[in-house]
Design a protein that fits this description.
Blueprint lengths: L16 E5 L4 H12 L12 E8 L2 E11 L11 E5 L4 E4 L2 E3 L10 E4 L14
Parallel strand pairs: 1-2
Antiparallel strand pairs: 2-3, 3-4, 3-5, 6-7
Length: 127
Amino acid sequence: GADMKHGATCNPDDRPELLLNGFGTRLGHRVGRQIGSLFGAIQPDFRGRRVVAFHNQRDFVFFRHYRYVFRDLENAEKDDRCALQEIGPRFTLKLRSLQLGLFAKRTGEYEYVWRPDSQVSRKVFAL
């Protein structure tokens, strides 16, 4: 988008810090663990400046990719020493189904299947 700065780079070999927000239900915890497993084992010592955020809002999962930007300590105010800069890409996901066990399209048991008639209430969400 227009609000992303061109030329912002980071090392793609560094594992990103992973932020999962809004995955509070039992199904949300499972989806959050599956998303987290895409990025490998959790290591608390982040050498890179990459941040990957997955934000769940109204059963839509928004993906954003950021990098940390550290400002000069003499010229920056106390609260403005560190910021996030979006470096893209960005996309939105919606969970259609979640299957228990191994993948078997015809004989598999599903834990969750999205249907248009299941979203009658605007206050009840699956994730």
